[in-house]
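Reproducibility note. Readers wishing to regenerate the assembly model reported in the main text can use the exact inputs given here. Chain order matters: entities are listed in the order in which they were concatenated for prediction.
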Amino acid sequence: MAENMNSDNTMIEMIKVSRTYKPNITALSDISFSIKTGEMFFLIGRSGAGKTTLLKLICNMEVPTKGLIEVAGHNINQLKGNDLAHLRQKIGVAYQDFKLLSDRTVAENIAISMEVSCKKPRAIKQQVRDLLDQLLLTDKHNTITSELSRGEQQRVALARAVANSPRLILVDEPTGNLDAATTKQVMDLLNRSKQSGATIVIATHDASIYQQSKHRVMELQNGAIHSLTKGA
Amino acid sequence: MNFWFAVFRQAGRNLRQTWTSQLMTFLTVSLSVLIFAFFYLIYTNMLGAGDRLSDDLRLIVYLEEEPGTEMKEQLRRKIENFDDVEEIIFISKAMAYERFAAQLGDDSDVLADMPEDFLPASIEVVPLQTLRGYNQIKLFSEYLASLPGTEKVQYGQEWVERFYYFTRLLTIVVLLSGTLLILTATFMVAYTIRLTIMGRRDELELLKLVGATNSYIRTPFLIEGILQGFMGSIIGLSALYGLFRWISLHFAGPGILNLFQFNFFSFQVTLIIVLGSISLCSLGSYSSIRKFLKI
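Running the prediction on these inputs yields the following structure tokens for the assembly.
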């Protein structure tokens, strides 16, 4: 799986993907685009445009009603069992609702993505400390996540997403609850992951993080592609 | 991180998070093992006692009159026609008198006024070890009673019959307590694992999303079942051993326990009970995993 991630130049391929919810609500309609390995890609659009649904389809949290989705050369909807698990270990996701374990500490929440990959405890501890330093959360190491502010929870969710050095990082609204200084810390962290070869897909409302960037931006409107910039 | 280290740590977390229901299950399994093992111990010891007592089993056929040489041969042939026997001993009236006098010992003078032929002649038939079942002995005695010249057959019918029905009753009790063990071990463990799964639904969902394999998610629950079975059986058997030692110490001396020579389980039987308990609890755990942990 890791070999495929490195050797294939296309990380995400979507061809005529649609997603409909019962009774007859179209969340996405005929979406086709590709994202190259190592690219940073912005996904924008109003609330309800389909950004979160698109991210959920890429990480196989949901299945498309029709169309093909390939991640690292694998049709993600045909992967099952351990194959799917191993691919997911290479995908880091920071969810809009964070999905943090509210009765566990910050460190335990971040460590969970590395524990499933059976990494050594010492390496896990070191990585957790590094990430907390980078996200200005050093003093929150042993704090239960339910005691954190929304902005802090958001950064913990992001730290968990990048902790296992994934080859693909999906981030849903990473700066929604953050001030300008912290937003910069978060974007620096994502840029460092990109520099180390990761592909980053960011769904956001925050124009400040994509307007001045050279990366491609795809705008969704009512579940369809409205525009897709070429990037630098 | 080593896979086994990770799953054992997760199993430890499960036990800590749901320790009250885990404790209840653990006590129920222990108690079920204790009840089953208690009756099984009595049952095996009663069977052992029955075997030892049946070694002395002999049927006494009282005859109407002293048989001649010819008739002795005829009776021997007739007895052996029914089945092979261990031994056939003819007791004449005079021999019966001598035996009785010997049994009376110092009190044998009470026989002084009695004629030496007042006791009937008899045949002592020692059946083969293979012919020791209650029904077989009963059939054999009926056959012997039907032989011509036979007055009466005695073999301690009442005692044998009571012993037979007592062991039958014990068999039923052992089967019932075995069923109780099976039900509690499988259902209680299955129920506890189900509670744990329900309580950790969010975490299990997250584990799937971050790429945990099926075995990473499921193995801790299986370990939980194995631990319940192992600890439950060890505590149950230890309690029984304690009880056994206490009874042995307090009821030592000439009594019924000495007559039966009560023994505790052999190592092999202990191991089978422990493994049986582990298997049943694992089965309960596995059924919950299959039913409630869809990955």
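We highlight two features of this model. The two ends of chain B are 23 Å apart (CA to CA). The longest strand of chain B covers residues 85-91.
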